[in-house]
Amino acid sequence: MHSHLFNFDAKKSEIGSLVAIQSPESIPFDIQRVYYIYGVDSKKYRRGFHAHRDLEQVLICVKGSLKVLVKTPKEEIIYSLSSPDKGLFIGKMIWREMFEFSKDAVLLVLASKKYDEGDYYREYSDFENAFFSKGNNL
User: Fold this and answer.
1) What phi, psi does 121 have (nearest 5°)?
2) Residue 138 in domain
3) Strands (DSSP E) along the chain, which ranges?
4) Residue 21 belongs to some domain of the structure
5) The whole model's pTM is what?
6) 125 exposed, middle or buried (CB, 10 Å; 0-12, 13-18, 19+)?
7) Is 65 inside a domain boundary?
8) In terms of residue numbers, what domain contains 26?
9) For residues 83 and 63, what is the distance between their CA atoms, to the nearest angstrom?
10) What is the CATH number of the domain that holds 102?
11) Number of C-beta neighbours around residue 75 at 10 A
């Protein structure tokens, strides 16, 4: 599966910490869009429930904690995000769901492309069919 956690180079001192993110040195794509998610009532809601045809993302929990389920029809992994100096890379054709947000969670998302509704698979069955039609049936 084309997803993995990685560490950012955090500059730490007695006065605080700083993480600088530059592409392509820090992440494997040019950043075209940045957004963040916060205020999620994790007792009621999960977020995501989609995959992208061509978009790649890096998810960073800059405050609090949450979990991210990434999956294909062949495999699934749950990642825990709780540190602002770690990023979760999610490649193309990977289904994602975010859940168990702490009350103070802020999830920063760096994306390789601007928003395009045509890039989304919003139904898992559509994603699954496309996944296998793209030769991922090994």
Assistant:
1) -105, 115
2) no
3) 3-7, 10-13, 16-19, 33-38, 47-52, 57-63, 66-72, 75-81, 86-90, 95-99, 106-111, 120-121
4) yes
5) 0.91
6) exposed
7) yes
8) 3-133
9) 7
10) 2.60.120.10
11) 10
Counted domains in the chain: 1
Q: How far apart are CA 38 and CA 25, in angstroms?
A: 27
pLDDT digits (tens, 9 = 90+) for 95-123: 999 999 999 999 999 999 999 999 999 99
Question: What single-letter DSSP state applies at residue 61?
Answer: E
Does the annotation mark 50 as catalytic?
yes
C-alpha 130: how far from chain center: 20
Residue 88 in domain: yes
Tokens of 35: 């957004």
pLDDT tens track, the chain, 138 positions:
589 898 898 998 999 999 999 888 889 899 999 999 999 987 778 999 999 999 999 999 999 999 999 999 999 999 999 999 999 999 999 999 999 999 999 999 999 999 999 999 999 999 999 999 876 654
